[in-house]
Amino acid sequence: MNVIETEQLTKRFGTFTAVDHISFSVGEGEIFGFLGANGAGKTTAMRMLCGLSTPTSGSGKVAGFDIYKETELIKRHIGYMSQKFSLYGDLKVWENIRLYGGIYGLPEKRLKEKTDELLRVLDLEHERNTLVDALPLGWKQKLSFSVAVIHEPRIVFLDEPTGGVDPVTRRQFWELIYQAAQRGITVFVTTHYMDEAEYCNRVSIMVDGKIEALDSPAALKKTFKADNMNDVFRALARNAKRGE
Ligand SMILES: Nc1ncnc2c1ncn2[C@@H]1O[C@H](COP(=O)(O)OP(=O)(O)OP(=O)(O)O)[C@@H](O)[C@H]1O
Ligand SMILES: [Mg+2]
């Protein structure tokens, strides 16, 4: 079953086309990598899927809901970790968890349990009363992710969730992603790191607003006669230039 479907989805800003007729689908439980260089249109596309931005044209459904008409229902069934942090730096760790759990509509008792469980899983119990601003970046990212799935949404959208941290911390972050996927949460994730692309079930690569390739990492490497995803990415960028 597909939890994300788009047909010719397009977003223009004035005369500039940021997302150019993209059509794709994502199956339930998939870890779907959404790749592309800076400015390719990833965040713009993701914001339309999350019901935060109205498309210029084309169609789309997320969790079975229409991205034009049912944005409030979409927001209730997804989690979203934006490229800019959405945690409150001047609130304590536990206060952030409570705040988001409340926004996502968790009842009081469940919120208490969830807060304790989350702090335990993240090994953050000793930082319960620390202001989020004082946490290292990698911990903020893990906390942001955990808060984005606190209500066990059907799909979680992650916009460059691991930017700027070391490989070990990124690896730990991906453990959290796998755990969520195992619980049946579909993961839609953008990244600039090609090693992370290898962890995805399927990957789409966007160039200048268009999806130029979409397949499993293994199949993409075969198609582009590449040893790794970095080379796939480079080959695609070269092809796109030639086609201009
Ligand atoms: N509100 C806006 N108004 C005008 N142009 C915009 C707006 N939002 C995005 N753009 C432009 O659309 C293009 C795609 O931007 P987008 O942020 O979606 O790219 P991205 O793939 O997420 O890049 P990055 O990897 O840097 O996050 C860029 O050229 C950007 O400048
Ligand atoms: Mg972006």
From TrEMBL:
Gene3D superfamilies, A to Z: P-loop containing nucleotide triphosphate hydrolases (3.40.50.300)
Domain of life: Bacteria
GO molecular function, one term: ATP binding
Pfam families recorded: ABC_tran (PF00005)
Domain ABC transporter: 4-233
SMART domains membership: AAA
Key words, A-Z: ATP-binding, Nucleotide-binding
Keyword Nucleotide-binding: yes
Protein name: ABC transporter ATP-binding protein
Top-level taxonomy: Bacteria, Pseudomonadati, Bacteroidota, Bacteroidia, Bacteroidales
